[in-house]
Amino acid sequence: MTTMIEAAPEVRDRLALPLDVGDLDAALAMAQRVAPWFGIAKVGYELYAEAGPVAFDRLHDLGFTVFCDLKLHDIPNTVERGAAALARRGVRFMNAHAAGGSDMLAAFVVGARRGAEEAGLPMPITLAVTVLTSDPDTSAFDARLAVARDSGCAGVVCSGWELDRVGAAGLRSMVPGIRPAAASSDDQSRVMTPGAAIRAGADWLVIGRPVTAASAPETAAAAIATEVAAALPSA
Q: Whole-angstrom Cα distance, residue 51 to residue 63?
């Protein structure tokens, strides 16, 4: 039986919960249920389309760090302006598609820095999306990793199976496609358990359906936090 104790900060600050729902109240309710174990709330297209940046504000009010998962991908000028606008909202993480190329990613970083400076806030951690974990074809990974590094991004979004190359490039890693042992892979092609990903060098883990679709989200979240704690180097 899982012991329902709150995760230590070094565990909680590594775990990101995707709030992939179109209803802000439902998203906030789920976030509050697992707040003792997950410290990062991920806002993607669906919730942002419903609530806009108010979602960031409400999650900040609940004590969460916010990962703005809008995967910017456009001409450099548009991405720079969009990144600046999002950074002014105080998000801690934001991302853009590495497939957009070096000029676009460089503009993404510039915009994030400018927006944060204008608001008097810390610069967000800029992440380049390499290859989606639903895609089994990773042939573009190395080129996209190089673009992310050379464009000044702080890290990448990648699967657990590419973490050795991310570490060698000197970048940080936000890792989706995380599934506890024996859990369904759902639509993910490249998955890894929470403990294995941490031992492989992941900085942050994105874990959604194994928690949000569980019959007891609190129990699922606590079990994942326990596994992560055991895998940390200091454990």
A: 18
- Predicted pLDDT of residue 1: 42
pLDDT tens digits, one per residue of 38-52: 999 999 999 999 999
Note the Cα 6 to chain centre separation in Å: 21
Structural domain of residue 83, as residue ranges? 9-231
Going by C-alpha positions, the residue among 52, 22, 51, 55 that lies closest to residue 41 is: 55
For 207, which DSSP code? Answer: -
* Number of structural domains found in the chain: 1
Rounded to whole angstroms, how far apart are CA atoms 119 and 7? 31
| Residue 62 maps to a domain | yes
Residue 182 predicted with pLDDT over 80? no
Enzyme catalytic residues: 71
Cβ-based neighbours of 147, under 8 Å, separated by 6 or more: 98, 101, 102, 105, 128
Report if residue 1 sits inside a domain.
no
Mean pLDDT of 204-208: 97
Residue 133 lies in a domain: yes
Token pair, residue 26, equals: 């439902």
CATH number for position 49: 3.20.20.70
In a domain, 4, yes or no: no
Q: Which of 209, 229, 235 is nearest to 34 (CA)?
A: 209
Say how many residues make up the chain.
235
Q: What is the pTM of this model?
A: 0.94
Q: What SS3 class is residue 173?
A: strand
